[in-house]
Design goal:
globular; six-stranded antiparallel beta barrel; alpha+beta; Pnp Oxidase, Chain A; 6 helices
Length: 160
């Protein structure tokens, strides 16, 4: 990560930066990302990998798409349910808990996945990796107070 990306990343986890991500880029990144085939997004501008997660609403049953920072662990996609350090879990977390089947769009390709929440040693290992990808997660955990930020593992669905 170069100096510009580090500066932009630091801004992203300030309270103002977090607000912008949750309220502005969360709405623009999915559109920009799809139109450009995954080549352009605010997250990529900052130097972070971006995935579009499409879930089924826990209460409504409607399809929802959200832009999220991600990383891979082998063939799994790892998502951190930080919600910018809010004391509440993000909506997509509840959607995955209710309906673990989801689609993930990365770099112009969509694939089907099934999710589970990492626990124990798996969570600790993946949380440590997440902090290497985005250094804002420890700040988000402090802001979240007693809410332990979930780590979600999305494994490719096998075709039968």
């Amino acid at each position: 990560m170069n100096a510009f990306h580090r500066l932009m990343e630091r801004f992203a986890y300030t309270k103002v930066g977090t607000w912008m991500i949750l309220n502005v880029t969360s709405r623009t990144d999915p559109v920009i990302n799809r139109v450009t085939g995954g080549r352009v997004s605010v997250a990529r501008f900052i130097g972070l990998p971006l995935a579009l997660l499409t879930t089924t609403g826990a209460k409504t049953g409607l399809r929802r798409t959200v832009a999220l920072i991600f990383f891979r662990d082998g063939s799994d996609v790892i998502l951190i349910a930080s919600n910018g350090g809010s004391v509440k879990h993000p909506g997509w977390y509840f959607n995955l808990r209710a309906h673990p089947e989801a689609q993930v769009y990365v770099e112009g390709k969509t694939a089907a996945y099934v999710a589970h929440e990492a626990e124990g040693a798996e969570r600790e290992r993946l949380w440590a990796q997440a902090m290497l990808i985005y250094r804002g997660y420890p700040t988000y955990q402090q802001r979240a107070g007693s809410r332990r930020i979930p780590v979600m593992v999305l494994s490719p669905m096998t075709q039968t």
